[in-house]
Design a protein that fits this description.
Residues 68-156 form the Acylphosphatase-like domain. GO terms for molecular function: acylphosphatase activity. Belongs to the acylphosphatase family. It comes from Colocasia esculenta (Wild taro). There is one protein chain. This protein is an alpha+beta fold and 158 residues long. It has three helices and seven strands. The chain has two domains: 21-58, no CATH class; 67-154, Alpha-Beta Plaits (2-Layer Sandwich). The strands form two sheets. Strands 6-3-5-4-7 form a five-stranded mixed β-sheet, with helices on one face. The chain is elongated and about 80 Å long. The N and C termini lie far apart (57 Å). Residues 3-8 and 18-26 have low confidence and may be disordered.
Length: 158
């Protein structure tokens, strides 16, 4: 498998974000400007062409740090739209995880994402809840549980 020279006159160039590819071009100092190649030049690989690719490196942007916590919220938290409110707020913050009612009357949730957004959800939003809720206690613990790849979901009662 060989590398073909790019057609610099193409009407639709390939656009790749600069943070994904680093490209170094080297031009010999005395290289004359060329606009057309002969058939022989096109067929034969040349290490002394005016423009040669010296290095290509691809990298993935760094992943932001992630935090996962499990919370149990107690008080008047069932029958007051708490789970749907939690789904809406978690999605707004870009968090992954789930929320569900528990038979003891509490609500349990797993939040995973950027630490500042997880803390925003737990400390500033879940401690208050939706307008009809009355939160009397909130317990949180770090978790290794997989939040899943489906965004933020509402789960059945346990």
């Amino acid at each position: 498998m060989g590398i073909r020279k790019a057609d610099m006159t193409s009407p639709s160039p390939l656009l790749i974000p600069s943070d994904f590819i680093s490209l170094t071009l080297s031009l010999p100092p005395s290289a004359p400007a060329r606009t057309e190649e002969s058939e022989a030049e096109k067929a034969a690989p040349s290490s002394s062409s005016p423009m040669s690719i010296a290095a290509i490196s691809c990298s993935t942007p760094p992943m932001p740090p992630s935090q996962t916590v499990k919370v149990v919220i107690k008080g008047r938290v069932q029958g007051v739209f708490f789970r749907d409110w939690t789904v809406q707020n978690a999605r707004e913050l870009g968090l992954k995880g789930w929320v569900r009612n528990r038979r003891d009357g509490s609500v349990e949730a797993l939040f995973s994402g950027e630490p500042a957004k997880v803390q925003e959800m737990v400390e500033r939003r879940c401690r208050v809840g939706p307008p009809s809720a009355v939160v009397t206690a909130l317990q949180q613990a770090s978790s290794q549980e997989d939040p899943g790849a489906e965004g933020f979901q509402r789960r059945p009662t346990v």
